[in-house]
Amino acid sequence: MKIFLTGATGFIGHHVAKALAADGAHLRLLVRKSSNLANLEGVHGDTVVGDLAAPDSLKPALAGCDAVVHVAADYRLWIPDPAAMYRANVDGTRELLRLAREAGVKRFVYTSSVATMHFRTDGIIINEDTPVSIADMVGHYKRSKFMAEQEATKAAQGGLQVIILNPTTPIGPNDRKPTPTGRIVVDFLNGKFPAYVDTGMNLVDVSEVARAHVLALTMGSPGKRYILGGENLTLKQILDKMSAITGIPSPTVRIPFAVAATYAFFEEWITGRIRGKEPRATLEEVRMGRKKMYASSAHAEQELGFRVMPVYPSMRAAIEWFRANGYAPAKTARARA
Fold first, then answer.
1. Is 76 contained in some domain?
2. Which residue has the higher pLDDT, 207 or 39?
3. Model pTM score
4. Contact 213, 109 (CB under 8 A)
5. Which of 114, 137, 157, 175 is 20 to 30 A distant from 328 in Cα terms?
6. Which of 63-101 are b and which e, b meaning 16 or more Cβ less than 10 Å from the residue's Cβ?
7. Domain CATH code at residue 18
8. How many folded domains does the chain comprise?
9. At a CB cut-off of 8 Å and minimum separation 6, what does 230 contact?
């Protein structure tokens, strides 16, 4: 099977590329001129230099492909120019769907996000059928992914065989950027997590998310969404698990959301707008944190053969990778004991 894959230099995309290659797929990997190709080491495939911002230039790369797997996305919780995120996530997805249809591509797997779901403050576990609208989206990332998912749904209604995957919060090795989830791990390892807020999320093994992309190509139902999740955990439980792995003390101080919001406000203004750097905390993160992002993957388990895996091994793998690649100090004597 010939597959055009976007986002292979990113965290999820790297693991998807490995899984597809291991399954025997012939890959055409979209990269930009500025892409860091470190995550493509050991992945067999043909690289295509291009950009979703200039979609018509991708037509030759799509010719003869059996499927498109669109993983690429602008995943940031703070961005100085939000319009750039909408161009990448919404316009880029819409145009790639158009090109795939024109090229006669048979299947299109779109990597959305669990961020497009409607979560609640009471921690109720949601699924693909939980009612949601764009009014429920907090911040530009969620709104842009929601809008992009609507484009994928429209394409499916128009006859293109589009399968939508909604990973929760992936964790594992090779998170080079790192993602916002990876930054939680890195900050913890570097002693920059003195307190926590009362929030929660669903952590999923990134390798199992990648395997689900392979399964979706043959087993996914066009037009349907599939949540790909793992364990529903409070932030405190996540920190405690990392403490058990590393020997680094888990924070014991819980701070109110009002305090977290005040800190994030000054971080955005001083670090983001004045210094021009990415802030360590944002108001969007605090607003999102008021809702526990707990989800069920039962639908993906039943239809795709997706597996809900324990998060501990993938968390350990992430920690070991961050340490081995200089994001954090090496193991302490206590952690080695």
1. yes
2. 207
3. 0.91
4. yes
5. 114
6. eebebbbbbbbbbbbbbeebeebbebbbbbbbbbbebbe
7. 3.40.50.720
8. 1
9. 168, 202, 203, 204, 205, 208, 297, 308, 309, 310, 311
